[in-house]
Design a protein that fits this description.
The chain starts with a strand and ends in a 7-residue tail after the last helix. Strands 1-2 form a two-stranded antiparallel ribbon. It has 95 residues and is mainly α. Helix content is 64%, strand content 6%. The radius of gyration is 16 Å and the shape is globular. It has a domain of 60 residues. Strand 1 and strand 2 form a beta hairpin. InterPro entries: Transposase_20.
Length: 95
């Protein structure tokens, strides 16, 4: 069964957020801290924020939403790759 889509916030925007369960407060807090740190210290994150603000004419809050989505996609890919590596017996991390 596919996750249900839910409207986010008020207004006429077309953003949707998927509810995949889990500890949403912990996930949100963690992603926020990662995004703040990346925006302060990582050149790629700063470039992403700058590019999004210039092209989309969006607010800082909207640009951070894009950065958080970008980071969460990368974290998800890393988790899936680690899961596949563990299932194949090629894990290099702690057991």
């Amino acid at each position: 069964m596919a996750p249900r889509r839910s409207r986010s916030g008020a207004g006429n925007d077309d953003r949707h957020r998927l509810n995949r369960g889990g500890n949403r407060q912990l996930n949100t807090t963690t992603l926020h801290r990662i995004a703040i740190t990346q925006a302060r210290c990582h050149e790629g994150a700063r470039a992403l924020l700058q590019r999004h603000q210039e092209t989309a004419r969006d607010t800082t809050k909207g640009s951070f939403r894009v950065l958080k989505r970008h980071l969460s996609d990368g974290i998800y890919r890393a988790l899936i790759a680690d899961h596949h590596a563990c299932n194949n017996g090629t894990s290099t991390g702690p057991q």
